[in-house]
Amino acid sequence: MVGEEGAFVLGWDEVLTEEELSTTLKVLCMSEEEFKEYKEQDGWEDDSEEEKNSTLSYEALSRLKTPCKKLLYDSVLLTLESYGSDLKAEQDLLNNKEAYEKLSRREQQALHVRYGQKRILHQLLELVH
C-alpha cells in the first residue's frame, strides 16, 4: 500500500507522497462493508477528477474525518517515539554553542536533519489533533 519503504514523505507545506497517504488513510478508515466493496471493485476506478488533482496540503489534513486524523496522530506519535531524544533536546543542543561545536561535522548534520524531521512531525500533530 505504501511502497517498498513503508513510509510517507512530508514536506513543510504538504505531503509529498500524497496519493499513498490518501489511499492508505481511506482504506484503514473504511468500515468492513466499504472495504469489501473496495476489494470487489479492485480499488476506486471512479475517483472524481477533483480528487485526483488535489494536493494533500497540511490544511487539507486538518479537515480529515476524525478517525483518519486519530490514525495519523497516533502514527506520528509512534514515529516520534522511535527517536532517541525529543524536539526540545535537539533544540537545546543546537542552542548550546559549546556542546554543538564538540560534535563532529557529521553529527552536526545529523542533528539538523533530526531536528527538521521532528519539527515537521510536531507541525503535523498540531494540525490533526
Salient structural properties:
N-lysine methyltransferase SETD6, 0% strand, mainly alpha, methyltransferase, set domain protein methyltransferase, domain 2, 8 helices, elongated, Rubisco_LSMT_subst-bd, 129 residues
Describe this structure in words.
This protein is an all-alpha fold and 129 residues long. It has a single domain (18-128), classed as Alpha-Beta Complex (set domain protein methyltransferase, domain 2), CATH 3.90.1420.10. The chain has eight helices and no strands. It has helices at 18-28, 32-40, 49-53, 58-62, 66-81, 87-95, 97-102, 105-128. The radius of gyration is 18 Å and the shape is elongated. Residues 4-121 form the Rubisco LSMT substrate-binding domain.
The CATH architecture assignment turns out to be Alpha-Beta Complex
Rounded radius of gyration (Å): 18 Å
Would you tell me which CATH topology applies?
set domain protein methyltransferase, domain 2
- Based on DSSP secondary structure assignment, what is the total number of beta strands? 0
User: Sheet bearing the most strands, described?
Assistant: none
Average residue-wise pLDDT: 85
SSE class: mainly alpha
N-to-C order of helices and strands: HHHHHHHH
| Helix count from the secondary structure assignment | 8
Helix content: 55-70%
Keywords: Methyltransferase, Nucleus, S-adenosyl-L-methionine, Transferase
Organism: Dromas ardeola
GO biological process, one term: methylation
Main location: nucleus
